[in-house]
């Protein structure tokens, strides 16, 4: 027999008070020495009928559960400091296999059997994707995957999972690149992809309310008849919830901003099941802490995002594509900064280096044959052709001044699409080249460094020197408007360690140049040491304090962004 959730759900309000009065040590003593005191304390407000209905063996289970769960709270829970250092907390204790089974039974009651799944195919899908250089360890696999359909589902599920201390990894499109959704602990994956309704398109207010599992490409398709679009983009299969949680940006971000500047409000379910709306729907607000932004980029470690209100942008009435080819990288990046200084702000500025242009040329996907030199792809938009032409004129002047040899302006929308498709299909061109010319099983290690714009040329020069020295082949793609570049290094399986040390050297270089190791992909559990290097230990300890304040049981996406367990030795 097992206890149904209702049987030992805590009376709201009172219980959490009494929790706080007890330290973990007290509780262990009480539990082991005096079950009855504990029971009367905890079940005081339950009716005798309920208590009577529960068999003696269940009392034991219940009490042990409590003991196990309570001992999870270290006595130094909130040390007398502003931050929480890793060594000041103890190892988290999570649900035992039998407690997990209890939780699963309760989840089936709430969500229905079809939404609680552990078939091998589903588990495998939620274990890894082919884009991560780091493979999960063999045991890093979810035990179950659950599919909530509404905010209420998520709330009820979290209340159960929190009560049993089951680790919960939120998951949406599964396209993230740094081990973000690896099940480092034995727990469940909460897949929010079935919450995919567009709730309201408020075209006059330029915003849209969505359930968080909407795919951004489909959302843009639904917005197109309104002449509207969202500001950020990412991998084609990414969903809004994942984009919020990685602060995704992509090709359009230099104009429209990363996800953080495109979110007005969020509905978030906290680890204990409470539902929070971070704002109403105003564009402006100075009311209280910025909870919306707290959850953006939090990689599923603080709450489950279930709904979002996003800003919309009008699709430019008129937009054209320009391609400029430059003899050197410095010429191309100087062009970018001078354009900004001149007040021209293209909708997209993408830089492809000579190696990348070689892959594109090699792929034969395009009618055009390209010179294999650093190349900038621009989208220039505006209200009318005249306004766009005016900007293109300045763009051409500045490019030519910076030694641009080929300045290609699309003559039609079709031609523009074709030109830009060279950028859009870059990823496939890279893989095609690597598989044919290097190794059929070639792998790609993607970096994500961003630096201040003026530092881009010297940093890239040093990156090339490192690559030459290493003997690896690579390509560089940059969101040049944001000085965020992906140096993608080809490697074979047996070269992984050597490749990793090259990648680490590159990230060090980005950091000493006032940059970041993660411009848009996030930290996951692949870049945790670089976060400390970038921001310093105190900043990371402050993040840990926030994490523990919101998620004291450390159940949400454990081990991501920073360590939450002093015994975690698991650097990749
Ligand atoms: C081919 C390719 C191209 C890409 N290009 C870009 C690019 O240009 N720009 C860019 O920024 N990224 C890019 N990415 C990376 C990736 O697409 C983004 O990181 C994206 O935001 C991930 O979204 P997702 O839905 O796949 O999230 P997932 O991978 O499912 O999850 C990402 C994170 O969000 C958390 N999460 C998911 N759902 C929820 C929820 N409901 N509540 C709380 N937390 C949640 C997860 O726990 C995880 O930490 C690319 C990836 C690929 C494969
Ligand atoms: C907490 O910090 C204050 C101020 O630094 C100090 O006076 C006090 O002794 C500290 N208390 C404990 C328990 O460490
Ligand atoms: C980016 O913005 C342009 C308009 O500037 C729009 O046409 C396009 O669909 C947006 N998204 C992507 C991924 O390019
Ligand atoms: C999100 O991205 C923007 C632009 O890259 C950056 O300015 C901001 O600090 C990021 N926010 C978070 C929470 O990561
Ligand atoms: C482009 O690629 C083709 C096929 O690989 C090659 O023949 C040609 O010389 C390349 N063009 C340039 C400009 O390098």
From TrEMBL:
Similarity-based family: Belongs to the FAD-binding oxidoreductase/transferase type 4 family.
Cofactor list: FAD
FAD-binding PCMH-type domain boundaries: 138-315
Entry keyword annotation includes Membrane: yes
InterPro entries named in the record: FAD-bd_oxidored_4_C (IPR004113), FAD-bd_PCMH (IPR016166), FAD-bd_PCMH-like_sf (IPR036318), FAD-bd_PCMH_sub2 (IPR016169), FAD-linked_Oxase-like_C (IPR016164), Oxid_FAD_bind_N (IPR006094), Vanillyl_alc_oxidase_C-sub2 (IPR016171)
BP terms from Gene Ontology: lactate catabolic process
GO terms for cellular component: mitochondrion
Top-rank EC class of the record's enzyme: oxidoreductase
GO MF entry, a single one: D-lactate dehydrogenase (cytochrome) activity
Transmembrane stretches, start-end: 43-64
E.C. number: 1.1.2.4
Catalysed conversion reaction: (R)-lactate + 2 Fe(III)-[cytochrome c] = 2 Fe(II)-[cytochrome c] + pyruvate + 2 H(+)
Name the record gives this protein: D-lactate dehydrogenase (cytochrome)
Originating organism: Candida tenuis (strain ATCC 10573 / BCRC 21748 / CBS 615 / JCM 9827 / NBRC 10315 / NRRL Y-1498 / VKM Y-70)
